């Protein structure tokens, strides 16, 4: 099936990224250092020595959905991604909600990243009192959002060059972490040297189903973000091929990164419940903080800088897909036309980018003023939005290509079996997460007599339903909701043929 019909596109800067640039942005969006800081300890608490296999199992639905993204992108390389594909497969209502899921995830995680950036920035100075100063941290976080919004507004080329540096620094620190941990294990100076055990990768060794599901759901979060490279498909050299390859390559690199760091940390610190042990609940919030002095000595501040860089880097790359998603929605009449404004010189979705930065800042400040606990619950609920729109993408792939599934073994596997398996896994993750979050003991708050995380997570998606209905009432929305501006058969607004593109900033490596 070939969907693509070249047009003038939406005005974005075509041919800006090659394979290398796409992978860099995809990796940066996941914030690998911060993701490990935020989840490794909790995964170990949930499943102990089975942490490595938990990361592997969580990788599977991500990989399966990455194949769905690749196949849909080959046919419909539109920066609206889930919104566009969901609309073409299931109609305007499902497509609109898919786009909203992307926006919600981006807004919530930006607030989290801004807070982490503020805390870790000020933890570099003084005795730690500055990093506990809420107004100071909040103002710093908003400043980071503002700077990265400006970088995103200025263009993908500037953003890619910045991400090359920031991502390289993150991986240098992770490499030093692994080497130092293994070095001390083998020379016997590790605090609790624990020999590698192949049983760590035994998927049948989980002792409790609840612990298994908790660990996998936690691990899903650290893979999220790789789809940013798909949202930049219209700005990529050869948009039908490179973004899909970049998505799959990004997920594989993340798997190797997370499993490698986890194994090294377990061999170095062990699973003990005291001291620097990974099973110590006091270390769960930030395992790296507990290990940094032993591994890095007087250079422990390097890990703090790495987490700061990771959060700031992901702040910029998180803005990109949301801004392009709302640009696409406006282009197809699913949002007011103003969201479709493209800067004439920078060729970026200028209005959508600025709106994203402003809304994320207001959300962050608002949640902080109301209660830091509610802000934390909104972050815990992030998995609902992620599973929601990833699952829509998987189902959309199967349904969109349903007439082609049995034309070849390749189509059956990559357009049918794997995307469906990924979507079903994520649907289960969504339902299981919602059930767990409903409990009043889940998270930090109780709202309306039930878990605050459930109220915030499901409520955020429900707000999308309200906004969709409100837009439906405006005359400008009719072409979209009547299926005229975007349906299965309408050509998408994508750039001209890739052969006409100029060389990308990284050489268009393919």
From TrEMBL:
Q: Does the keyword Nucleotidyltransferase apply?
A: no
**Transmembrane feature ranges:** 12-34, 40-69, 90-122, 134-153, 165-186, 206-226, 247-271, 295-314, 348-366, 378-400, 412-431, 443-474
Keyword Transmembrane helix (UniProt): yes
- Signal sequence span is none
Q: Which InterPro entries match?
A: AA/rel_permease1, APC_superfamily
Kindly give the Pfam families that the UniProt entry links to this protein.
AA_permease_2 (PF13520)
Major place of localization?
Answer: membrane
Question: Topology relative to the membrane, per the entry?
Answer: Multi-pass membrane protein
Give the subcellular location.
Answer: Cell membrane
Keywords, alphabetical: Cell membrane, Membrane, Transmembrane, Transmembrane helix
Instruction: Return the PANTHER family for the record.
Output: AMINO ACID PERMEASE, AMINO ACID TRANSPORTER-RELATED
Q: What is this protein called?
A: APC family permease
Species of origin reads Microbacterium wangchenii
């Amino acid at each position: 099936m070939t969907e693509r019909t070249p047009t003038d596109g939406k005005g974005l800067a075509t041919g800006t990224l090659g394979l290398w640039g796409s992978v860099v942005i995809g990796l940066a969006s996941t914030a690998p250092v911060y993701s490990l800081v935020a989840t490794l300890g909790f995964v170990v608490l949930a499943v102990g020595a089975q942490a490595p296999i938990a990361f592997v199992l969580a990788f599977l639905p991500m990989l399966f959905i990455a194949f769905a993204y690749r196949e849909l992108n080959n046919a419909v390389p539109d920066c609206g991604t889930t919104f566009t594909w969901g609309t073409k497969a299931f109609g305007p209502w499902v497509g609109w909600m898919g786009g909203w899921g992307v926006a919600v995830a981006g807004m919530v995680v930006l607030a989290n990243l801004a807070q982490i950036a503020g805390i870790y920035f000020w933890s570099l100075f003084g005795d730690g009192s500055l990093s506990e100063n809420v107004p100071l941290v909040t103002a710093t976080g908003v400043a980071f959002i503002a700077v990265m919004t400006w970088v995103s507004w200025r263009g993908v080329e500037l953003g890619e060059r910045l991400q090359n540096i920031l991502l390289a620094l993150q991986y240098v620190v992770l490499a030093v972490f692994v080497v130092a941990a293994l070095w001390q294990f083998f020379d016997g100076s590790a605090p609790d040297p624990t020999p590698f055990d192949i049983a760590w990768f035994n998927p049948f060794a989980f002792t409790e189903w609840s612990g298994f599901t908790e660990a996998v759901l936690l691990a899903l979060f650290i893979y999220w973000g790789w789809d940013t490279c798909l949202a930049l498909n219209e700005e990529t050299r050869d948009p039908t091929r490179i973004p899909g390859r970049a998505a799959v390559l990004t997920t594989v690199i993340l798997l190797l990164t997370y499993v490698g760091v986890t194994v090294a940390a377990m061999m170095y610190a062990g699973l003990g419940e005291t001291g620097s042990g990974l099973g110590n609940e006091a270390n769960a919030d930030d395992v790296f903080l507990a290990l940094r002095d032993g591994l890095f000595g007087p250079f422990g501040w390097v890990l703090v800088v790495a987490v700061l860089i990771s959060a700031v880097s992901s702040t910029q790359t998180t803005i990109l897909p949301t801004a392009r998603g709302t640009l696409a929605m406006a282009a197809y009449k699913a949002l007011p036309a103003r969201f479709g404004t493209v800067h004439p010189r920078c060729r970026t979705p200028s209005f959508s980018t600025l709106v994203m930065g402003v809304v994320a800042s207001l959300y962050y400040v608002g949640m902080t003023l109301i209660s830091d606990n509610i802000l934390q619950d909104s972050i815990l609920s992030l998995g609902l939005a992620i599973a929601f729109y990833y699952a829509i993408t998987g189902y959309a792939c199967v349904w969109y290509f349903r007439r082609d599934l049995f034309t070849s073994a390749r189509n059956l596997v990559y357009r049918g079996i794997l995307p469906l398996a990924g979507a079903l896994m994520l649907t289960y993750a969504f339902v299981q997460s919602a059930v767990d979050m409903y409990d009043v003991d889940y998270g930090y708050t109780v709202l309306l007599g039930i878990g605050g995380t459930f109220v915030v997570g499901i409520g955020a998606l429900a707000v999308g339903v309200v906004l969709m209905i409100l837009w439906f009432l405006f005359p400008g929305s009719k072409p979209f909701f009547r299926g005229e501006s975007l349906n299965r058969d309408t050509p998408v607004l994508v750039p001209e043929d890739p052969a006409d593109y100029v060389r990308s900033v990284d050489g268009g490596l393919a």
